[in-house]
Amino acid sequence: MIPYAAGVIVPLALTFWVQKSKKEKKRGVVVDVGGEPGYAIRNHRFTDPVSSHWEHISTLPELFEISCNAHSDRVFLGTRKLISREIETSEDGKTFEKLHLGDYEWLTFGKTLEAVCDFASGLVQIGHKTEERVAIFADTREEWFISLQGCFRRNVTVVTIYSSLGEEALCHSLNETEVTTVICGNKELKKLMDIGQQLETVKQTWPRNPVDPNFPLSADVAVIMYTSGSTGLPKGVMMTHGNVLATVSAVMTIVPDLGKRDIYMAYLPLAHILELAAESVMATIGSAIGYGSPLTLTDTSNKIKKGTKGDVTALKPTIMTAVPAILDRVRDGVRKKVDAKGGLSKKLFDFAYARRLSAINGSWFGAWGLEKLLWDVLVFRKIRAVLGGQIRYLLSGGAPLSGDTQRFINICVGAPIGQGYGLTETCAGGTFSEFEDTSVGRVGAPLPCSFVKLVDWAEGGYLTSDKPMPRGEIVIGGSNITLGYFKNEEKTKEVYKVDEKGMRWFYTGDIGRFHPDGCLEIIDRKKDIVKLQHGEYVSLGKVEAALSISPYVENIMVHADSFYSYCVALVVASQHTVEGWASKQGIDFANFEELCTKEQAVKEVYASLVKAAKQSRLEKFEIPAKIKLLASPWTPESGLVTAALKLKRDVIRREFSEELTKLYA
Length: 665
Prior knowledge:
Elements: H1 12-24, E1 28-30, E2 39-43, H2 60-70, E3 75-89, E4 95-108, H3 109-125, E5 134-137, H4 142-153, E6 158-161, H5 167-176, E7 181-184, H6 186-194, E8 221-226, E9 236-240, H7 241-252, E10 263-266, H8 273-285, E11 288-291, H9 311-315, E12 319-322, H10 324-341, H11 343-362, H12 364-367, H13 370-384, E13 393-396, H14 403-413, E14 417-421, E15 431-432, E16 445-446, E17 450-455, E18 471-478, E19 484-485, H15 489-495, E20 496-498, E21 504-514, E22 520-525, E23 529-531, E24 537-539, H16 540-547, E25 553-560, E26 567-573, H17 575-585, H18 592-595, H19 599-615, E27 626-630, H20 649-655, H21 657-663
Parallel strand pairs: 3-11, 5-6, 5-7, 6-8, 10-11, 10-12, 12-13, 13-14, 26-27
Antiparallel strand pairs: 1-2, 2-17, 3-4, 8-9, 9-19, 14-15, 15-16, 17-18, 18-21, 20-21, 21-22, 23-24, 25-26
C-alpha cells in the first residue's frame, strides 16, 4: 500500500520534517535481559516478547479452524490446471519437459477445512497413533498444506523433508525420527521405493471415516523440520505449536494492511520455515494462496511452454516471499533484457532508474511523487508485469540481500522489501525491517516475539564495545526459540542456552552490528571466516556477496586455505552474458563448456571480479588470485546448494577438489 498518493505536492517544510523525523525514529531499544552479558535490543513497541496475537489461542489448529469458519465462503487454496506435458528437444539433443498450464482452480476456506478434517480422520482409520510421526516429503502444493493441518488436528508431529534431499539424507531423516507414515507425491514416491529396504518404521494405506479432533497443547511438538544440510547430514529442529504461533503473531504486527484482499504466491519449499510461517499468516488473515513452483513462476521459466502464462501472470499476487538468490535472478534477467535492446530503450531505462534511485535515497516523499508516476508508466510498468503487476509487498529472507538488488527491486517492481533475519532454530523469527524503512543492507529491528543480543567474539575481533556500533555474535531469545535438535543433545547444548529467568537463547554463529536506531546488520559468519598464511582473516560470504554483482557471475564460491596467502574462487558463469561478450569479440566456440575453458573468457570474467572487488573496497588479500570458470549451474537437485540456494561448501569442495588443487598449483 503506497503511503502517499502519487501527485500530491508536498510543502518543502513538511518534506524536511519527514526526513528529520525518519532519521530520528527508534525501531529498537536497548533492554536489560538475562543470560550471557551482551548488548540486547527489543522491538520499540513491545516491552516483552509476544507469544500469541490472540488471547485464547495457543496452538496452530485452533487458529486455523477459527479462520476457516470466519472466512468460510472465501477462496483460499488455488492450483493451476495441468492441460498437458510436452517434451522438447534442443539442438544439442537434450530433452526438456514443458508444461501447458491453465487458470487457477480454487478451494474455499470451508472446503479446505473439510479436506483437513477428512485427512485427520484418514490418519485414524489407517491406525496412525498420536505418538507416531508423519513425514511430508513433497514439493510445495495445496495437498502439502492440507496434510500439515490434518496432522496438527490430531496432535501428530510432522517431520518436514526437502524434496531435493539425496538418498542418504532422506534415509537418515526418516529413520532417526522413526516415521511410520510418509505423505509424498509421485516423484518422491519413486525415491522412497528406491530406498524402501533401508527404511525401518514406515507403513502405508488410506480410508476415510470422520473422527473428532484431538487438539495439541502449546508446548507439544508441531514440526520436526530437517535443515537442508549445508554441512553434513541434516539436523531435525523441534518446533512447538507455541514457537510457530509466536512468529505468526509477530509478523501480523509488522506487514501493513494485511487482509482478505491479498493474494499470496506460494512457491518456496514448505519444508522451509520461511514459507511455512508465511502461509500460516495468510491462512490466518483470510488471504488467498496460489501455488506454483520456481520452474513455472514466470512466462519465461524453464518448464513453461512458450505462449503459456507463468504462475505470477496467472495469479497476479499482491504479496510474495523470496530468497535473495531469486531476487538476484530477477534483477539480472531484467538487466539482460535491457542490455539486449540497447539504443534509446536502454538510455531511457538507465535515466529513469538513476532518477528514481536519487529520489529514494533522498526522501520518502520524493520517492513517491509525480515523477515516479511518469517513470512507472513509461518504463517500469512492463517490468512489473514480470511478477504479475500487482505486487505491493515483498518479504526477503534466508540470507542477507545486497543493497544493489534491494534498490533494483524497489524501483523496478515498485514495492518495498521487508528484509528479515531468522533461522529454522528460531522459527524464522528474529528481526524484520519496517514498511517505511528505506535503508539497504540491514535486516531491521527485533520482531515483537524476540530479544536480539550481541555477545563478544574476541577471537574474531568483534566486541560489543566497538565504535561506532556494537558488534558481536547474534543471539536470539524469546517464545519463538525452538526446543533443540532431535536426538542430538550434544549439539543442542552447544547452541541453545536457558538463562536464570527460564528464557531460551539460540547462538546463531552469525556476526552482526546494531545501528543507532536499533536495526541489525549482518556483517559476517563465524564458520565462513578463514585465517590466511600471514594472519589475515577472509570472510568468504562477504567476498562472495561483493563479487556476485559481476554480470558474468551466476554463482560463486570463494575458497581460502590457511597454508596459502591468497584465496581462489569457483565461478559458475552466466551463460547468456559470457556468450554475448564472446560473440561481440568474435571468439569461436562449439559450446558453452568449451568457452569457459578459453583463456580470453577467464581473463574477462576475472577482470570483472576485480572491478567488483574494488567497488566494494575489498582488501587485496580478499580478492581471489585465481578463478575456475564452470559451465553447469549449481542447483538443489545437483546437491551443491540447499533448497534455499545456499552454498553447500563442503560438498562443493569435495566435488571440485581437483580444480581447487590446480588453482593452488
